[in-house]
């Protein structure tokens, strides 16, 4: 299972839809996506993870990398997270830095 | 891969999720338990490859089994001794301003240790042997 990444950037809003598994195998392509987004003027990043079935520490590092590249002024929202993906994010404390919306809350 | 056993010699551990899923199904683990067992195994295999073998190819063997009360997975490698249970977990690495100012990484072992009910380690015959256990729910599963 690989990771499919669909990205749109419109008027400062970057939306990234992730489908599949974000792990050590797919991390390089996710890093590249984040690098390209951080090179454009964005004020908000929405990560739609409804179809993200697996998130390891390697995948999570990419999301933290996005936070570091974009800076404190850019709000990052992670939407539609499964219970397992949300728990992984919370265990590492990254939910302190982003707006995390569980699937159950949407 | 045969039974609950596989050998990884470099390259991505594509067979690992297959093994863990089969073990979790046979053990009657919940979806969340199976996910966490896979996550713990994945993190330890990645740790052995990236830190134990420093990115070079090296033998990693994964085996598993069922007990009446638990499903277990054992990860073995021939890298220098490393006890994943010995390091203090401390605060979550990305809590507070850690995500903005801290180094990337450092949460693989935390995820592994927090994802299973027990993690034990021994070094014997020139091998690290890390065993993960997840408690089975009563009256569910085979074996």
Can you describe what's shown?
The complex is a heterodimer of chains A (106) and B (143). With 106 residues, chain A is an alpha/beta fold. Chain A contains 3 helices and 5 strands; from the N terminus they run E-E-H-E-H-E-H-E. In chain A, helix 2 links the parallel strand 3 and strand 4. The model of chain A has no long low-confidence stretch (mean pLDDT 94). Helix content of chain B is 33%, strand content 26%. Chain B is built from 4 helices and 5 strands; from the N terminus they run βααββααββ. Chain B has a 5-stranded antiparallel beta sheet, with helices on one face. The two termini of chain B are 19 Å apart.
Order of helices and strands of chain A: EEHEHEHE
Shape type of chain B: globular
In which range does the helix fraction of chain A lie?
A: 25-40%
Number of helical segments with 4 or more residues of chain B: 4
Unreliable stretches covering 5 or more consecutive residues of chain A: none
Distance between the termini of chain A: 26 Å
Most extensive chain contact?
Answer: A-B, 26 and 28 residues
| Strand ordering within the main sheet of chain A | 1-2-3-4-5
The rough form of chain A would be described as globular
What's the count of strands of chain B? 5
Label the structural class of chain B.
alpha+beta
* Integer average pLDDT of chain A: 94
């Amino acid at each position: 299972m690989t990771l499919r990444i669909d990205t749109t950037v419109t008027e400062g809003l970057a939306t990234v839809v992730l489908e599949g598994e974000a792990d050590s195998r797919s991390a390089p392509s996710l890093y590249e996506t984040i690098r390209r987004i951080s090179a454009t003027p964005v004020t908000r990043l929405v990560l739609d993870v409804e179809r993200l079935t697996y998130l390891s520490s390697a995948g999570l590092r990419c999301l933290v990398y996005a936070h570091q590249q974009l800076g404190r002024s850019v709000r990052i929202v992670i939407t539609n997270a499964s219970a397992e993906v949300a728990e992984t994010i919370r265990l590492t404390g990254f939910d302190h830095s982003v707006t995390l919306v569980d699937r159950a809350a949407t | 891969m045969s039974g609950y056993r596989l050998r990884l010699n470099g390259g991505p551990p594509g067979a690992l999720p297959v093994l863990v899923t089969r073990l979790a199904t046979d053990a009657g683990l919940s979806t969340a338990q199976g996910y966490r067992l896979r996550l713990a195994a994945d993190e330890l295999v990645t740790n052995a490859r990236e830190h134990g073998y420093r990115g070079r190819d090296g033998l990693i063997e994964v085996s598993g089994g069922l007990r009446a009360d638990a499903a277990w997975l054992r990860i073995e490698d021939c890298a220098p001794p490393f006890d994943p249970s010995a390091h203090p977990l401390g605060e979550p690495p990305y809590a507070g301003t850690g995500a903005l100012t801290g180094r990337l990484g450092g949460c693989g072992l935390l995820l592994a240790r927090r994802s299973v009910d027990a993690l034990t380690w021994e070094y014997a015959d020139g091998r690290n042997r890390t065993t993960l256990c997840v408690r089975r729910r009563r009256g569910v599963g085979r074996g």
